[in-house]
């Protein structure tokens, strides 16, 4: 049974990406590709069914993925992912965490670079 669910989720979406954003290309929120996105605390209950792309983004945000990783995991164009994540930020479901600043350690920088590259490769 699980393989049926996996095969259904692996099927490409027939929904055109621009319909997910109502044709918008600007998120209204400054989102860097490598910016980690996490759920607000305490998490707000969502009103979308589990198969809705916004609910899928919220599920992913439990692990604080980058914007690029969200796009890759959901097979979305990066611009669409940015708009949808921006909407969720404005609506108070997720928050964008700061990327590394001057005080970041070498290990933190390597991890960030690795995560960003994995996300970009998956696109």
From TrEMBL:
Pfam families: DUF742. InterPro entries: DUF742 (IPR007995). This is DUF742 domain-containing protein. It comes from Mycolicibacterium chubuense (strain NBB4) (Mycobacterium chubuense).
């Amino acid at each position: 049974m699980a393989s049926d669910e996996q095969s259904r989720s692996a099927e490409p979406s027939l929904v055109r990406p621009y319909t997910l954003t109502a044709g918008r290309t600007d998120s209204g929120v400054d989102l860097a590709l490598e910016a980690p996105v996490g759920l607000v605390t305490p998490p707000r209950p969502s009103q979308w069914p589990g198969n809705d792309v916004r609910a899928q983004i919220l599920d992913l945000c439990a692990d604080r993925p980058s914007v690029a990783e969200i796009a890759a995991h959901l097979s979305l164009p990066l611009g669409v992912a940015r708009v949808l994540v921006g909407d969720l930020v404005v609506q108070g479901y997720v928050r964008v965490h700061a990327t590394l600043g001057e005080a970041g350690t070498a290990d933190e920088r390597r991890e960030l670079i690795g995560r960003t590259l994995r996300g970009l490769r998956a696109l």
